[in-house]
Amino acid sequence: MSFHTLGLSKPLLDALAAKNYSQATPIQHQAIPTVLSGRDLLGIAQTGTGKTAAFMLPSLDRLAAERQIPKPGQIRMLVLAPTRELASQIAASAETYGRFMRLSVGVIFGGVPNGKSVRTVARGLDVLVATPGRLLDLIDQRALSLRELEILVLDEADQMLDLGFIHALKRIVALVPPKRQTLFFSATMPKAIKELADKYLTNPAEVAVTPVAKTADRVAQRVVMVNQAEKTALLTMFLQSEKTERVLVFSRTKHGADKIVRMLEAAGLSANAIHGNKSQAQREKALALFRSGEVPVLIATDIAARGIDIPGVSHVINYDLPEVPEQYVHRIGRTARAGAEGQAAAFCAPDERGLLRDIERLTRQRIEVAALPADFTVKVEELKRLKLAPKAPERSARPNFKSDRRHDGQRREQRNDRQRHPHRADGHAAHRSGAQDRNGQRRDGQRNDAVRSPYRPEAHREVDAAPAPARTNPGHGHSRPAGAHPRPEGGQPKRKFRRGGPRRAQG
């Protein structure tokens, strides 16, 4: 169905035409009229079906129709996302759809300096996309308030619960006004999500366009039975033999993803990893290289299963089968997007066969079993002889500590034996103490009596040995008797300070 029949305003239609979007998806066709009416919505749809446009297009239309300039530190619409990548994509979509509207859009998430996030929300925003953690940080700092919020959106609500954001969600919802429009979007509907929706939604309209556990129709799936220690050899042969465009490989652990990258680089294949231990700059750089095709292989954990929306992903490989069968659906949904076709391969170790049965039971389909390559054993032996690249050392966030400068294990005594500073080596005067001569010897025993050093330690001893003069006037401690040793040059008189006001007069 065309977007022109859904009741959207002309600026939004012009923005959609500029992106060559003309036909609405089923979730958009059902959700947009409901959101435009101001009613709460509970939407269930698998990833890649256009949920972002389903809630962003009508919400922008409502904000533009009731034009209000947000006050400093206030926002009108809040979109909560579970991951940084997904938050960035939602914000980019909002800017694209609202390019012909005078609406301000911002995004905040962890991994960036706190000051930058504070500046983002300081002047007030029409639309803010945020992860729960950074949002609560700004609220605690009183840099952001939700008192004037009009629209609250929870995207990928089920994944937020999986990542442990339930307490953060409850706290955020308690801070928003009771009179608001709330939109829940999720790929699955577990019991916890249903209870959350019943608590925070008021008479919502429910939209479910596809079965929860149905995989994408245009994805060709296969599984290969292989030992865990031989998976990297199989992945290497797959990348060298298959005609691929962009390959997304899913690993169960962060350290496993880094190890896969090192082994692929040892085999001459370029790859990057993206997971929770990477900084935001590293994650953005890896995604940019993957999007441009400069590094066509990206190793990811499930943190990116629903956060990557990159066209042209031709293959998705499940290096490790997910422990939660629903994640398999989200993983392979990264390919065959926007009407394209894709392929998905899974590597199943003997101890993962139970996970494979859970996936087939959930999706209600048998996955085709493919055979190992003919020369697979030879490739395994070749890979074993490869020397892996050294693991990159993890630098401390606090630079220039002595422990960091001694990361190579050298002892302090060994560093003292190195060549000294050139000026120090030839006896530069600026680096010699006042009690040493040009040869480094002390001057005390060999100085000439005619040229005496201005340094006289005996003068201080004389002062210390002199008896303290008696005070003549108890009310004025600054007078000194005649004949007393003069005060050292540059010294300051000792003064007694009494708290609580000026000193009382004596007598």
Automatic annotation (TrEMBL):
<dbReference type="GO" id="GO:0003724">
    <property type="term" value="F:RNA helicase activity"/>
</dbReference>
<keyword id="KW-0547">Nucleotide-binding</keyword>
<feature type="domain" description="DEAD-box RNA helicase Q">
    <location>
        <begin position="1"/>
        <end position="29"/>
    </location>
</feature>
<feature type="short sequence motif" description="Q motif">
    <location>
        <begin position="1"/>
        <end position="29"/>
    </location>
</feature>
<dbReference type="GO" id="GO:0016787">
    <property type="term" value="F:hydrolase activity"/>
</dbReference>
<dbReference type="InterPro" id="IPR014001">
    <property type="entry name" value="Helicase_ATP-bd"/>
</dbReference>
<dbReference type="InterPro" id="IPR044742">
    <property type="entry name" value="DEAD/DEAH_RhlB"/>
</dbReference>
<dbReference type="GO" id="GO:0005524">
    <property type="term" value="F:ATP binding"/>
</dbReference>
<dbReference type="Pfam" id="PF00271">
    <property type="entry name" value="Helicase_C"/>
</dbReference>
<protein>
    <submittedName>
        <fullName>DEAD/DEAH box helicase</fullName>
    </submittedName>
</protein>
<feature type="domain" description="Helicase ATP-binding">
    <location>
        <begin position="32"/>
        <end position="207"/>
    </location>
</feature>
<dbReference type="InterPro" id="IPR011545">
    <property type="entry name" value="DEAD/DEAH_box_helicase_dom"/>
</dbReference>
<dbReference type="InterPro" id="IPR027417">
    <property type="entry name" value="P-loop_NTPase"/>
</dbReference>
<dbReference type="InterPro" id="IPR014014">
    <property type="entry name" value="RNA_helicase_DEAD_Q_motif"/>
</dbReference>
<feature type="region of interest" description="Disordered">
    <location>
        <begin position="390"/>
        <end position="507"/>
    </location>
</feature>
<dbReference type="Pfam" id="PF00270">
    <property type="entry name" value="DEAD"/>
</dbReference>
<keyword id="KW-0378">Hydrolase</keyword>
<dbReference type="InterPro" id="IPR001650">
    <property type="entry name" value="Helicase_C-like"/>
</dbReference>
<dbReference type="GO" id="GO:0005829">
    <property type="term" value="C:cytosol"/>
</dbReference>
<feature type="domain" description="Helicase C-terminal">
    <location>
        <begin position="234"/>
        <end position="384"/>
    </location>
</feature>
<feature type="compositionally biased region" description="Basic residues">
    <location>
        <begin position="493"/>
        <end position="507"/>
    </location>
</feature>
<comment type="similarity">
    <text>Belongs to the DEAD box helicase family.</text>
</comment>
<feature type="compositionally biased region" description="Basic and acidic residues">
    <location>
        <begin position="439"/>
        <end position="464"/>
    </location>
</feature>
<feature type="compositionally biased region" description="Basic and acidic residues">
    <location>
        <begin position="392"/>
        <end position="429"/>
    </location>
</feature>
<dbReference type="GO" id="GO:0003676">
    <property type="term" value="F:nucleic acid binding"/>
</dbReference>
<dbReference type="InterPro" id="IPR050079">
    <property type="entry name" value="DEAD_box_RNA_helicase"/>
</dbReference>
<keyword id="KW-0347">Helicase</keyword>
<keyword id="KW-0067">ATP-binding</keyword>
